[in-house]
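Sample entry (279 residues):
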Amino acid sequence: MGNVKLIAFDLDDTLFNTKKEIPPETFNALEKAASMGIEIVPATGRFWYAVPESIKSMKFVRYIITLNGGEIFDVKESKSLARFELSVGLTIALAKTFEEYFPEAIYDCVMDGKGFMNQKCFDKIPEHMINEWQTKLVRDFRTPVDDLPKLIAEKNTGGQKMQIYTLDKELRENLLKALPIVFPKALFTSAIKNNIEINALSANKGNGLKFIAQHLNIPLENTLAFGDGLNDIDLIKTAGTGIAMENACEELKNVADYITLSCNDNGVAEGIKKFCFTR
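Predicted structure, serialized as tokens:
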């Protein structure tokens, strides 16, 4: 790779430690990189309204990849630069399938930057979450509705992202294998051990990185990226140098160019120092 001109990174369990904090050493490394003229780009599965203020308020962050690449935001201009959505018909078909065949799980849908969930799913959120933090996050950013497939049809808007939540490991693994076969025009990934994330085929973090790099006239070989989950694979494969956290899933480690320390040990800072400050 050439000199790093752009650093992209996932948030949860990558930039953030397991306490959902940005370690001071990691923040300082980002700040120093930005002072060197390196573009700093968060890349998250969250939608804009659910991106933490600790990220939005970073003075050196101009662009954010949200919804796994489903939407690219210009923070300075407070506007969306690009959106990639599931078709309306496919969104409705997915919603009806989840309701009819997988009632033991719950699901949601993000449309126009807002999250929606059937009331019966909303009421069961605590049963399907890993911890109280995730329970609060999902509750705070989902609006309960009576009939989600009907709402999708009425809005006539495709989903920017859908999610299935279940703590049943076997069900989740089976769905990750089966759903891409049934719905080949959607992309199925996962960020944490109790979810499946569904996006348009073109909506992935790798394509988000390509969009911003092209927007800024930065060659991909001059980009550095960090991640930990299945939804980071395209990001890590696309970047000039892709770095997996020590706590990353094995699938991501297998495609990474380098494995750094864990999110609890300033892994992002260690990677930045190695590839940006020692060259």
